């Protein structure tokens, strides 16, 4: 996986960064923790622009988050309740669990989306309740964009600062 990501970034540049970050948000096993630091390394070497890497990573991340937001809004709370009623025992979730989760998200939606964009594993999932609870699109995009910008910039900076020893980290 590492070799695929590094060769793709080396050949496609910022467009590859955006594409991989979009895919990372849709299919989490492709880690941003590999994509963005390597892109930062390429920026430190002068192969890519630091600013374009951060912008491309943020755009890809927001695009992937929007897809999950849209899925969350399409699924709807009523559909999820029917699924839980039928299969909740196997999914280990009850309607009371759903009620508590959605109530918490409605109280903390903006903060949850912003902070969720920084936490691995949560990054993908936080967009679903945002869409499901009807969080307005503009606040969702602002919280997602600012959290994603912070995350992609931090990872890019780490790769930029690791420039010389990056080959050792790869092993």
TrEMBL record:
<dbReference type="Pfam" id="PF09335">
    <property type="entry name" value="VTT_dom"/>
</dbReference>
<feature type="domain" description="VTT">
    <location>
        <begin position="30"/>
        <end position="160"/>
    </location>
</feature>
<feature type="transmembrane region" description="Helical">
    <location>
        <begin position="48"/>
        <end position="71"/>
    </location>
</feature>
<protein>
    <submittedName>
        <fullName>Protein DedA</fullName>
    </submittedName>
</protein>
<keyword id="KW-1133">Transmembrane helix</keyword>
<feature type="transmembrane region" description="Helical">
    <location>
        <begin position="140"/>
        <end position="162"/>
    </location>
</feature>
<keyword id="KW-0472">Membrane</keyword>
<keyword id="KW-0812">Transmembrane</keyword>
<keyword id="KW-1003">Cell membrane</keyword>
<dbReference type="InterPro" id="IPR051311">
    <property type="entry name" value="DedA_domain"/>
</dbReference>
<dbReference type="InterPro" id="IPR032816">
    <property type="entry name" value="VTT_dom"/>
</dbReference>
